[in-house]
Write a structure and sequence with these properties.
Layout lengths: L1 E8 L1 H5 L6 H17 L3 E4 L1 H8 L9 E11 L6 E8 L8 H10 L14
Parallel strand pairs: 2-4
Antiparallel strand pairs: 1-3, 3-4
Amino acid sequence: MVERIYTINMRTLIKKNARWERSKRSIAIIKKFLKRHMKAEGIKLDKSITEEIWKRGSQRPPGKIRIKVTETEEGEKDEKRKVVKASLLGVVQEETKETKKEEKKTETPKVEESPKEKKK
């Protein structure tokens, strides 16, 4: 498994597009960049990246973005393919449903004790 951190400068590429298409185009630029640099077949962008790009609307995406990229292989032995997962740098990943279920199983239920009666 390979992990890399990239800073992608999109400013000059975005300025060539119409104002209302800039955020949409910046997503395509990120995917094209990752495909070229990681030489991967599948690319999965985390929700945090799209939220960061669309935060200021469709007309004003950020000029630069820092992302953390991890490379994994998916599929069976014969049909393995390289998949790249990208997330925004510095953002804590959301817990999946599976990890939440595992935490609930390991927790011991707390028994509430009744408060001690005060004597007068």
